[in-house]
Amino acid sequence: MGKRTEQAKPLDAGARLAPRRDFPIFENWPDLIYLDNAATTHKPAAVLSRLDEFYRLTYANVHRGVYRLAEEATAAYEEARRQVAAFIGCEDTGELIFTRGTTEGINLAAGSLDSLVQDGDEILVTALEHHSNLIPWQQLCRRRSLRLRVCPVTPAGELDLAALERMLTPRTRVAAFAMVSNALGTVVPAVKVIAAARQAGAVTVVDAAQAVPCLPVAVGDLGCDFLVFSGHKMLGPMGIGVLYGRREILEKLPPYMTGGEMISRVGWDGAQWAELPQKFEAGTPNAAGAVGLAAAVRYLEEIGMDRIRAHETELGRRARELLGRIPGVRVLGCPAACCGIVSFVVPGIHPHDLAQFLARENIAVRAGRLCAQPLLRTLGVEAVTRVSFYVYNDLAEVEKMAEAVEKGIRFFKAKK
After folding, report:
1. Do the beta carbons of residue 306 and residue 313 sit within 8 Å?
2. What are the beta bridge partners of residue 151?
3. String of b and e for 188-204 (b: at least 16 CB within 10 Å)?
4. Closest C-alpha to 326, from 298, 296, 347
5. Is the pLDDT of residue 167 over 60?
6. Nearest to 370 by CA among 382, 379, 362, 358
7. Is residue 314 packed enough to be buried (19+ CB in 10 Å), middle (13-18) or exposed (0-12)?
8. What is the location of CATH 3.90.1150.10 in the chain?
9. What is the pLDDT of residues 247-278, one digit of tens each?
10. Pick the CATH number of 47-301 from 1.20.950.20, 2.30.30.100, 3.40.640.10, 2.60.120.200
């Protein structure tokens, strides 16, 4: 299966790919330089309008009514599924399950895969993981007496592929990894990792929360068993996400949650599960979130995912360069392949203090542990300041950020 065809548009390195006027939030915050996109992204008017349109004109519970309004709501929901599936190269819409987000998707996978593991088996994760792709596997290991193994990273912040190949054994039942690190911006060579894991007989679970928003992703090309991501990190609404899973595996697994919508027959003595994807979508779904996510997908496709990756890479490269020139700043990791996520520390200045200073300069960044405490401790730090870029950022904002960091360092030094 090939990757999605991108519209041929020229690259303009450093310029915004999406005008700020497309995003109503910036009308209320005209001076804001928003550099916290790895946490969440703002919504274009096209997404907000689609949400409003659904609630005003097409709102009803899906799959449950035979009246026209319910049929239109159901059609919109399933059309959203088709569009989002096409966005990640998934040809079988039964393999695309709507969730509340990446965290729920990983928990769904970990909870359901409980049936495929045996005591003494191993689960392999990497040192790059967000807590959402670590704690569910820790809990599965505790429930089933499994061994959790962690593949290390190099000093540059890249996955140690040689160590990965050594650690994959016939005992490895699951290999779970982030396609893009939320702390370092490292782009993991997913095809290589998945191929090695499959050769060892392991089920692969890809955390693509930071990847799908900025990289062309086609699940057929990757060859993964599961892939999860969130809508709010790619211009879509909060509370909607996706779990892609290969039909062959999904049909073998028990549902993670049970109740209404996910059954075909119920009696006092038991129940039969519905067909995919409803088998894994218990309860009333977030239909509005799904149609909003589909609108975000259309917006991103109009820009072109290849252009988005080039744009993020350029802004991240420039940020690393400028921050690296500032005396005392330590930029964490220097991966050869990275997206627009950069974390750094300034010895003697707490990241929260620096973030508050930047906020006074109308620059929004993230500070803290980034839900990646084990990784940060491996790198010798407890907390960091993180900047992350998206389609409405440009090089001028990167430069203003670096200037503000220098100004902040002078301010805190003067106070001592």
Report:
1. no
2. 126
3. bbbeebbebbbebebbb
4. 347
5. yes
6. 382
7. buried
8. 20-40+305-415
9. 999 999 999 999 999 999 999 999 999 999 99
10. 3.40.640.10
The rounded distance, in Å, linking the Cα atoms of 154 and 376 is: 13
pTM of the model: 0.96
**Strand-pair partners of 159:** 153
DSSP 187: B
Q: How far is CA 347 from the centre of its chain?
A: 30
Alpha helices in 325-394 (DSSP H): 351-360, 373-378
Q: Which residues contact 285 (CB under 8 A, 6 or more apart)?
A: 62, 77, 98, 261
Single out the residue of 336, 374, 383 nearest to residue 129, CA to CA: 374
Sign of the four-CA dihedral 269, 140, 262, 56:
positive
The helix (H) or strand (E) run that includes residue 181 is: none
Mean pLDDT on 198-213: 98
- Condensed to tens digits (0 to 9), the pLDDT of residues 401-412 reads 999 999 999 999
Q: Whole-angstrom Cα distance, residue 2 to residue 219?
A: 9
Q: How far is it, in rounded angstroms, from Cα 169 to Cα 306?
A: 35
Q: Are 29 and 363 in contact (CB under 8 A)?
A: no
Residues with catalytic roles:
371
H helices of 265-325, in order, are 287-303, 305-324
| Matching residue, tokens 């096409």 | 86
Residues in a beta bridge with 21: none
* Record: fold of 20-40+305-415: Aspartate Aminotransferase, domain 1 (3.90.1150)
Beta-ladder partners of 147: 122
Closest CA to 289 of 364, 246, 238, 361: 238
C-beta pairs of 354-360 under 8 Å, 24+ apart in sequence: 354/385, 354/405, 354/408, 354/412, 355/385, 357/404, 357/407, 357/408, 357/411, 357/412, 358/385, 358/401, 358/404, 358/405, 358/408
